[in-house]
Amino acid sequence: MSSQFAALLDRFFYRPDEAVGPFLESAPESDRGAEAVPDETPEEFLAFVLDTETYAVPIGAVREILKVTVVTEIPRAKKNLIGLINVRGEMLPLYDVKMRLRLADTAPVVRASKDVGRAARVLLLKDLEGDAGILVDRVEGVVKLQLSRLEEAPELGIDRNAIAGLGRRDHQLYILLDVEQALS
User: Fold this and answer.
1) Residues 102 and 157 grouped into a single domain
2) What is the pLDDT of residues 92-118, one digit of tens each?
3) CA-CA-CA-CA dihedral for 101, 107, 112, 114, to nearest 10
4) Do 99 and 69 share a structural domain?
5) How far apart are CA 31 and CA 131, in angstroms?
6) Band of the pLDDT at 156, cuts 50, 70, 90?
7) Residue pair 131/137 in contact by the 8 Å Cβ criterion
8) pLDDT per residue as tens digits for the range 20-63
9) Same domain, yes or no, for 25 and 86?
10) Half-sphere exposure (CA, 13 Å, Cβ side) for 165?
């Protein structure tokens, strides 16, 4: 690049240390306080779909993702408890969080993989009271979100304390699930 062209480019681009005078006052509000933010390492979340909404949980809370297998019914169990699943000899509860989030009125009757869609999966989540599975319609994948940009869950006038907050990436909204509250 010629030195003449480089000098022209240097005059054209804004440098943070240069005086801008009254021009900054006419700049949009979003451009005024654009100070350098220290680099933040984004956290990883596992995104999944329930009905038509996209949810996410911290990747550290996920033990594993399984295809739906045989589910053993438990008589007189909680309404949101679908049953028990056998994971390599360990019997774990399988929950329907759609009821907890008021996306459904009743838990689905699931006894085998034929009772759900092909994309449905069981997310095994780590919990203080013991690991448990939740039935999801589809797993989207891992998404990285910056913790400083997460938003509080809006007050909707209903009991939605299973929602920890909201995250955005590009044009996609992720509803962050509070694992402990969702399984209670």
Assistant:
1) yes
2) 999 999 988 888 888 888 888 888 999
3) -80
4) yes
5) 46
6) low
7) no
8) 556 556 666 555 544 545 678 899 999 999 999 999 999 999 99
9) no
10) 12
